[in-house]
Design a protein that fits this description.
The protein has 16 helices and 18 strands. It is an alpha/beta fold.
């Protein structure tokens, strides 16, 4: 791994410089002292900022950037803007997302809208201050407009009593190489699953007791994973019955069940899901190319996806979502586009396009480190958007992750009326979410301060099972205090 030392006159800039530098040159380790193959320095003198980057046996560049006001300290984001311009020159490329490195850029647009900014002012902010391309700025504006109809009005008193519920099943039949989630493989006898399931039912009951006295209304319900359909049909029935008994689900706008692994789905499980009111099913092939799936440790069976899609459709669920990942294995752009065409032909109402992110906890990261392959280029991403648009899919939510090809984005596309409401609310962070189970984080939203308080749960099933009483007491005490204060 190459090592780059930051020599910063302002050490507090390290985080900002690291985040942006990684977008140009992923996988480089940065340090603040010691020997390194490269040095990035920042100094200020009067009304100028000086930046220099030099690699051993490589290119050296030094530039000075002028700012107008020397009487007040510069914002960190202004330094980041100077660094962006500097790195664009050094690497001879620009980033579609400019200086933005956060995962929720649409939320920024929504904030400016609440502040009363005009569309022109918002566009100017993203284009001139954050250096975001016109294409991505337009995309953000488009998605923000789309989401506006799904986000409760902060001035609506009733909206303040709406919450979402997330139930986590972080277990899978096997773990794919690219997966960074702390998911547990179900043991041969299913004992770890059964123990987790029993604890989950207790947490559902105790959480329901607290919320029933709080005049709260469940707006969306999402059962996610891992792979929730690793549960047996009887377990799934018991789980959904417990949710109905412990929470008022009569006002749900959306009920989602992740059924990501096709081999875990059968007719009986779908019958149970339908009977309990599930409207949205997520089936995630990730790729339709068998060589790709096998290369990343994901099981593949000829014709299984097509068979399961037909089975899901036979039950008349409102929405079928299917996920694809850009950059798996050694796929070429044409490989991915063939997968996309195959999925489109299966006629789901919702398609999510993820970009492979090399993250801690994945087998790929453990084996290869952070090795982000060169991207497919902007023409490829525009081709994906165009093909989906031509088939009536519109972008409705977006988030970004580190260490992706082309520093790109993840976008959810949907036919009108089939947008994932839970996804929208999670990215907007405008509503409280109660997380039940291992790794299910609670997000408690305060509309007065517009702040989120997080309630974390241990991520792995083993620790959750071993420390269940302690974990449950801590979460229940927190929710009790928060909602009854």
């Amino acid at each position: 791994m190459r090592v780059l030392r930051f020599d910063l006159e302002r050490p507090e800039l390290e985080y900002y410089f690291h985040e942006l530098y990684q977008a140009f040159d992923p996988g480089v380790k940065n340090i603040l002292s010691g020997a390194a193959a490269g040095v990035l320095s920042q100094k200020s003198l009067e009304n100028q900022v000086f930046l220099t980057l030099a690699w051993e046996n490589g290119k050296t560049l030094s530039r000075a950037y002028q700012f107008n006001n020397s009487e007040e300290p510069l914002e960190n984001s202004i330094y980041k803007g100077f660094l962006y311009d500097f790195l664009c020159e050094y690497f001879d490329k620009q980033l579609e997302w400019g200086t933005l490195t956060g995962i929720k850029p649409v939320k920024m647009v929504q904030k400016y809208v609440r502040l009363g900014w005009s569309p022109t002012q918002i566009r100017d902010r993203f284009r001139n201050y954050y250096r975001v391309s016109s294409d991505r700025t337009d995309l953000l504006m488009r998605i923000a407009r789309k989401q506006a109809g799904f986000i409760p009005d902060e001035l609506d008193y009733g909206a303040q009593h709406l919450i979402s519920l997330y139930v986590g099943i972080p277990l899978c039949p096997s773990k794919c190489d690219y997966c960074s989630f702390v998911s547990t493989i179900v043991d041969r006898k299913g004992e770890n699953l059964q123990q987790y399931f029993d604890h989950l039912l207790v947490e559902i009951e105790k959480t329901g007791e607290i919320l029933r006295t709080c005049d709260l209304q469940i707006d969306t319900l999402y059962i996610g994973g891992g792979t929730p359909t690793v549960l047996s049909a009887s377990q799934l029935d018991i789980l959904m019955s417990a949710l109905e008994e412990c929470f008022d689900l009569s006002h749900l706008r959306e009920y989602t069940l992740e059924a990501g692994r096709p081999e875990t789905i059968d007719r009986e499980k779908l019958e149970i899901a339908k009977a309990h009111g599930v409207e949205r099913i997520c089936l995630n092939p990730q790729s339709m190319n068998p060589q790709t799936l096998l290369s990343v440790g994901r099981p593949w069976e000829a014709g299984l996806i097509e068979k399961q899609v037909a089975l899901i459709k036979s039950f008349g669920f409102k929405t079928l979502n299917m996920d694809l990942i850009v950059g798996l294995g050694n796929e070429t752009p044409d490989d991915f586009l063939r997968s996309l065409e195959t999925v489109i032909a299966l006629e789901p109402q919702n398609i999510t396009i993820h970009n492979l992110s090399i993250k801690k906890g994945s087998r790929i990261k453990d084996q290869n480190g952070i090795v982000v392959k060169e991207g497919y280029g902007e023409d490829f991403y525009q081709a994906v958007k165009t093909r989906l648009s031509n088939k009536g899919f519109e972008p409705y939510y977006l988030y970004r992750l580190k260490y992706t090809r082309d520093n790109s984005e993840n976008i959810g596309y949907a036919k009108p009326g089939h947008e994932g409401i839970y996804n929208i609310l999670m990215m907007a962070e405008c509503q409280s979410t109660i997380g039940i189970g291992a790794g299910a984080t609670g997000n408690l939203y305060d509309p007065v301060t517009d702040n989120i308080t997080k309630v974390f749960t241990v991520k792995d099933v083993k620790t959750y099972n071993e420390r269940f009483e302690e974990i449950l007491e801590k979460k229940c005490c927190f929710y009790q205090k928060y909602f009854h204060s």
